[in-house]
From TrEMBL:
Transmembrane segments: none annotated. The keyword Ligase applies. This is 3-methylmercaptopropionyl-CoA ligase. It comes from Aerosticca soli. InterPro entries: AMP-binding_CS, AMP-dep_synth/lig_dom. Keywords: Fatty acid metabolism, Ligase, Lipid metabolism. It holds the Pfam family AMP-binding.
Length: 213
């Protein structure tokens, strides 16, 4: 038996659509919207959205990013607390084929700037609470990513727009029927996180589409 090829265990057993589908967490929201379209999906203050609405918004986000040239192999960073846009980014960004980088909200501008540069972020979504640190971070970059302000109705502090456009305006550019496609390979990256960097520079940790399942 040839161990490198799998021998008899791979002989005449090719991967086909009938016996192999790459795993992806994107199928979770697709199924929820199909089976439970009217069930509550997002609750944030007075805001209520069901699964069908949330699914459409995720596809709008994917479409809007794609129309701005952001797709497979690109990084989209987010500096957000637990708000609806954070939920949508976890599905909308990978639906565009891009990689989601959730930034630690406790870090300073220098650390954030390093991560944005190292991860080659093409866009950044930012909550008003963290607008000052993102503004200071992108000012340190040689190439500025697209900065998108996310309005948080529950935030009570000072608001200052630091981006080129607002999140809802970005979604308005997108198509709720965006013809997304699931990954062809489970090895495709879906998210990028960074270690604390306590003994040096933070290290990027890449998750594949099968890893979160």
């Amino acid at each position: 038996m040839n161990a490198s090829t799998g021998g008899i265990f791979e002989q005449d057993l090719p991967r086909t659509p009938a016996n192999y589908v790459p795993l992806s967490p994107l199928t979770f929201i697709e199924r929820s919207a199909r089976v439970y379209p009217q069930a509550p999906a997002v609750v944030h203050g007075e805001l209520r959205r069901n699964w069908a609405e949330t699914w459409a918004r995720c596809r709008r986000l994917a479409s809007a990013l794609a129309r701005r040239g952001i797709g497979p192999g690109d990084t989209v960073a987010v500096m957000l607390p637990n708000v609806p846009a954070m939920v949508e980014a976890h599905f909308g960004v990978p639906l565009a084929g891009a990689v989601l980088n959730t930034l630690n909200i406790r870090l300073d501008a220098a650390s954030i700037a390093y991560m944005l540069a190292h991860g080659q972020a093409r866009a950044v979504l930012v909550d008003p609470e963290f607008a000052p640190v993102i503004d200071a971070a992108v000012a340190q970059l040689d190439e500025r990513p697209l900065v998108i302000d996310v309005d948080d109705a529950l935030y009570e502090g000072e608001r200052r727009a630091v981006g080129e456009l607002e999140y809802e305006a970005l979604l308005a550019e997108g198509d709720p029927e965006h013809p997304y496609r699931l990954p062809d390979d489970e090895w495709q990256a879906i998210s990028l996180n960074y270690t604390s960097g306590t003994t040096g520079r933070p290290k990027g940790v890449v998750y594949t589409t099968a890893a979160p399942i």
